[in-house]
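Case study 2.
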Amino acid sequence: MSLTFVQGDTAPNITAFLHEEDDPSSVLDLSQAQGVSFQMRKQDDHRYTVNAAATILDAPAGRVSYSWGANDLSMPGTYVVQWEVTYLGGRIQTTSPEVTITVRRQ
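Prediction:
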């Protein structure tokens, strides 16, 4: 999946339904999740440009959202994003496959 935003945008929020890696029809039930992080990095870099708390919109359906910060989309380029779920007890699950985001110049 690929999304495109314009440099400097802060809307719309990015929203997703998280699912099991080996079965895309099986959503992740986030009822036991302590929190979810939205993580974004340049395609050719392993350092995150964004690693911030996301909002769980519908826990049983695995629906999450992230509201862009003022500088999140400030640099044009190709990015990959993923969601990291932290469950009660500290277990962590990261989504796959990563989604590609293109930030085009203003």
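The two ends are 22 Å apart (CA to CA).
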